[in-house]
């Protein structure tokens, strides 16, 4: 790394943070992560996931404002391609957060939804490490709840918030996607909606049927567009954080995140080598061929 | 393999085929596949995929009847958990195929949708190899078009049929899932539906915007429940097969299927070893940790 990026990063230059994330995103961030990893671990990482249209970006916006009022610095990583954050917009005019564009205490970054080595989670985890090491207090990762990505984000965040909205059949989706297992906090956004209480009831019923070892996810009703419920949401995140810290769960959770990340990197590096080995094997019994491939990896 | 399974399998015992598939499904099929692999390669494998409710199982049922009338023997592998085949039912009373239960020329098998080593595609490919080696002429693999599984099936089948239905927004889904790339034949089932012509038009428009190197997927309207269009469907599958054979594409496609299968087996065997290695690595820079893991695999 024969450039001025690392010194600028360490000085707290915001453009250096942006460039560092870009470098990681393009798969050239290894040295950088190596250099700053020791400074990371202090930030609180919060994943916010949920189906499209639930109001995640609005929720993130009001949460950022809430944290700024408390004097906390915040990084936002958006891996939701439909999020306004991904297009450089911050909520528009309803909630006046545009001031954050020039606020050095807020750093917003969108990530491509398919990543380099280690997948989405790899690039996102790198970005979170960089924001953390750079000195931001809270790192919020916004991801759209479709497919595998929200589960991956739950692997790397300390606290995962699952946002749902009334009248959308969301409660059924919750069970489907196994999202109940990843939620540390539930948000029922659009709490003024006529179906809001019904969604809350359904969620509570489902939660009653589930065993939660240690921590039971609280259910926070919000009206993000009006900023309502955001203090209760942060309190719930703080309560989960306190639970993680007092029970030693945080260390276990971060160890799990570390292992998840290393596994993704290692398998991501092995896959093309396996592919190259397979291409050299003659047709025949696929199990025998797989053994021949595995022999090249000392197994 | 110190048992009588292989001799019974080679004698053409149908229960031996069933037991052989069960053995593969539970991850103990390696010796068996090794022993019979040389006899496989003669059957034609046809994947039939599409969204839930499109009538795939009915389509498979009438296709089986059509093939039986031609004197061909048929194996059906269902990896769709919602398929009636997966529950041992064969279409019920509308189309009288229940006679096939006692027809030795038809063998029906449902597969668990999450598999052993090598995933769904691994267990399904094993079952297809066994049916092929056992002597069935055509192997039909029915899979529900959600997520990754239909793409995996397209990797192992000679011909992939994508079934769509009118009035369901299917044409949009086609583009979304990248299913246009895997279809060798399109079926618009429920052709009597008022929206059928519109779906056909949309599909044709989308296909006009796509470059098809070599083979352009034909579009076959069917009314599976009445057995209509099934002859045209088989003709389209035969035409694709002729294309594959006359252009040398079949050999390339089967080589691709072989490589896909070996890759899945090899990575499936490496993953738990990587996991075990990761568990022994101390916390720290994840890239350095990944290198430490990779060093154990001679890379």
In short:
Two copies of one chain form a homodimer. Helices cover 48% and strands 12% of the residues of chain A.
Primary descriptors:
homodimer, 299 residues, alpha/beta, 48% helix
Q: Unreliable runs of chain A, pLDDT <50, ≥5 residues?
A: 87-97
Percent of residues in beta strands of chain A: 5-15%
Estimated structural class of chain A: alpha/beta
Report the span from N to C terminus of chain A: 35 Å
Question: What is the average of the pLDDT values of chain A?
Answer: 85
What percent of the residues of chain A sit in helical stretches (DSSP H or I)?
40-55%
What oligomeric assembly is this protein in? homodimer
Order of helices and strands of chain A: HHHEHEEHEHEHEHEHHH
Major sheet strand order of chain A: 3-2-4-1-5-6-7
